[in-house]
Amino acid sequence: MENTWLVAALWIGLALVSGLIAGWTGISISLVEIAVGVVAGNFLGLHPNQWVNFLAGVGSIVLTFLAGAEVDPVVLRTKFRESVSIGFLSFLLPFIGAFLYAYYVLHWTLEASEIAGIALSTTSVAVVYAVMVETGLNETEIGKIILAACFITDLGTVVALGVLFANFNSWMFLFIVATSLILAFVSRFTPFFLNRYGNRVSQLEIKYIFFLLFFLGGLATMANSEAVLPAYLLGLAVAGFFLQEKTLTARLRIITFSLLTPFYFLKAGLYVSLPAVVTGAGIITVGLIVKILAKFLGVWPTTRFFKFGPREGMYTTLLMSTGLTFGTISALFGLNHGYINQVQYTILVTVVILSAVVPTIIAQAFFRPDREAVTREEKLEAKLVP
């Protein structure tokens, strides 16, 4: 019989080790947790059980909600062209490139190639948001543009998955109607609820957020969609209010990064089978190159068109090249519904996880903008604007 407490101690111990390594090396904690998960899965025989899957799922949902809540509505409006252009091209070109590679080079079926296109077109909200928070760039305009562009990219992947594979039944109709109604009223009701019931020992505002996330996630699951989609939309709906509620946001971050996201990122690393990686190294390498190259062709010229600095443009391009949450979800969707087999799933998930690690390490090591310098420049630009 499994000893729940020892299993929990093992997972939290790995998270603790990951945090220490991240502190010693300066590498983003999310990437270290993924790498530790790879080692634990291949050499320690670690595997997720039901409650680990639940905590990891909650971690991805709340992290996605927080990422949506960090999208400044003012920046989204004032930098609408930049955000939409970067986000849309970040989705479109990798989708086309990965689809063509899978269909014409690997000779996968049409459905498997479509899954490949969707899985490799994503940008990892989880990784990008974690990096933004660690560096403090989520408080800057460039960070908010990147988060807004991530939203557009992943919205494109969700729409593509829905149009190509969704089962439009009564549950899907109910999910769409319920989500639309909640999103329409939540931005007005949330300030009222928090002003009336917030700041109590029982933390009713946290329970309120979790209730909405779980409820919409449950409806999404019934509709064969994914719980992270309404979480992102819900975060975006309350973003204006949450940007003013720094204390509430900080409490949610503490819960998320200390307890929930370690399970999510460690579990993501478990999907990488090193023997399978060695066997399919050529295919995986080319797939990673296709994704990153397509992202560069779409994002880098767009950042230059909108007069991003060379450093900021490269940093934006590299972070938009990451993938994790929606990529693994899309691959798992294809596997569960028989559109791809286990070998194809391993290839896609490995490419997705490598895309979370490689571009982020390069971006953080060589192109990370200095937060203070960026803030000073943004303040100067604001003064110069009439």
UniProtKB/TrEMBL annotation:
<feature type="transmembrane region" description="Helical">
    <location>
        <begin position="315"/>
        <end position="335"/>
    </location>
</feature>
<feature type="transmembrane region" description="Helical">
    <location>
        <begin position="115"/>
        <end position="133"/>
    </location>
</feature>
<feature type="transmembrane region" description="Helical">
    <location>
        <begin position="7"/>
        <end position="31"/>
    </location>
</feature>
<keyword id="KW-0813">Transport</keyword>
<dbReference type="Pfam" id="PF00999">
    <property type="entry name" value="Na_H_Exchanger"/>
</dbReference>
<feature type="transmembrane region" description="Helical">
    <location>
        <begin position="51"/>
        <end position="71"/>
    </location>
</feature>
<dbReference type="GO" id="GO:0016020">
    <property type="term" value="C:membrane"/>
</dbReference>
<keyword id="KW-0406">Ion transport</keyword>
<keyword id="KW-1133">Transmembrane helix</keyword>
<dbReference type="InterPro" id="IPR038770">
    <property type="entry name" value="Na+/solute_symporter_sf"/>
</dbReference>
<keyword id="KW-0050">Antiport</keyword>
<keyword id="KW-0739">Sodium transport</keyword>
<feature type="transmembrane region" description="Helical">
    <location>
        <begin position="347"/>
        <end position="367"/>
    </location>
</feature>
<dbReference type="GO" id="GO:1902600">
    <property type="term" value="P:proton transmembrane transport"/>
</dbReference>
<feature type="domain" description="Cation/H+ exchanger transmembrane">
    <location>
        <begin position="14"/>
        <end position="365"/>
    </location>
</feature>
<feature type="transmembrane region" description="Helical">
    <location>
        <begin position="272"/>
        <end position="294"/>
    </location>
</feature>
<keyword id="KW-0472">Membrane</keyword>
<dbReference type="InterPro" id="IPR006153">
    <property type="entry name" value="Cation/H_exchanger_TM"/>
</dbReference>
<feature type="transmembrane region" description="Helical">
    <location>
        <begin position="145"/>
        <end position="165"/>
    </location>
</feature>
<feature type="transmembrane region" description="Helical">
    <location>
        <begin position="83"/>
        <end position="103"/>
    </location>
</feature>
<comment type="similarity">
    <text>Belongs to the monovalent cation:proton antiporter 2 (CPA2) transporter (TC 2.A.37) family.</text>
</comment>
<dbReference type="GO" id="GO:0006814">
    <property type="term" value="P:sodium ion transport"/>
</dbReference>
<feature type="transmembrane region" description="Helical">
    <location>
        <begin position="227"/>
        <end position="243"/>
    </location>
</feature>
<keyword id="KW-0812">Transmembrane</keyword>
<protein>
    <submittedName>
        <fullName>Na+/H+ antiporter</fullName>
    </submittedName>
</protein>
<feature type="transmembrane region" description="Helical">
    <location>
        <begin position="206"/>
        <end position="221"/>
    </location>
</feature>
<feature type="transmembrane region" description="Helical">
    <location>
        <begin position="250"/>
        <end position="266"/>
    </location>
</feature>
<feature type="transmembrane region" description="Helical">
    <location>
        <begin position="171"/>
        <end position="194"/>
    </location>
</feature>
<dbReference type="GO" id="GO:0015297">
    <property type="term" value="F:antiporter activity"/>
</dbReference>
<keyword id="KW-0915">Sodium</keyword>
